[in-house]
Amino acid sequence: MRITPKTPEVRVPRLVGLMAVDARETAEAQGVLLAAPDRPDFHLAVIDYVVRQYPPPGAEVPRGAVITVWFELGDGEGGGAGVREPRRPGPPSGGLRRELDEPGDPFEILR
User: Fold this and answer.
1) What is the pTM of this model?
2) In the chain, fewer beta carbons within 10 Å around the N or the C end?
3) For 63, what's the count of Cα atoms within 13 Å in the CB-facing half-sphere?
C-alpha cells in the first residue's frame, strides 16, 4: 500500500484496460474508492478487465470519492465484433466448376 499526500483533491487514474485486481490497487494508491454496478462480487474479481469508468481519467475529485467501473459493455457500446461490409458475391461453390463459369456454345453464330 502506497501512502499518498493528504491533498483535498486527487486526479482520477485511468482504469480502462486494467484487470480488476490492478484497478483496485491503482485506485487505492490514488486515494479513491471503486464501485462496480455490474459485478456484485467485485471484491473477488481478479482477471476481468475494466471497459468503462466514470468520472473519466484526469478529472479532479475529492480524496475518497467513488469511481464507478464497468466490466461489460452496455447495449450499443461496441460489444459486437466490429463493422462488417457485405461479402457479395459469395464464394464460388466447390468442385470442377469452382473457378470457371459454364462455357457457352463454341460455335455460336454472331450477327
Assistant:
1) 0.61
2) C
3) 10
- Give the residue carrying C-alpha cell 502506497: 2
Indicate the residue type of 94. Answer: G
Q: In 3-91, where does DSSP find H-type helix?
A: 20-30
Torsion of CA 2, 50, 33, 57, to 10 degrees: 80
Task: Quote the CA–CA distance of 102 and 12 in Å, as a whole number.
Answer: 66
**Cα radius of gyration (the chain):** 28
Cβ atoms of residues 60 and 35 within 8 Å? no
Phi, psi values for residue 53, rounded to 5°: -150, 155
Cα 75 vs. chain centroid, distance in angstroms? Answer: 12
Q: Where are the alpha helices (DSSP H) in the chain?
A: 20-30
**CB crowding 28-40: b at 16 or more within 10 Å, else e:** eebbbebebeebe
Total residue length of the chain: 111
The pLDDT tens digits of the residues spanning 29-54 come to 999 999 998 888 888 888 889 999 99
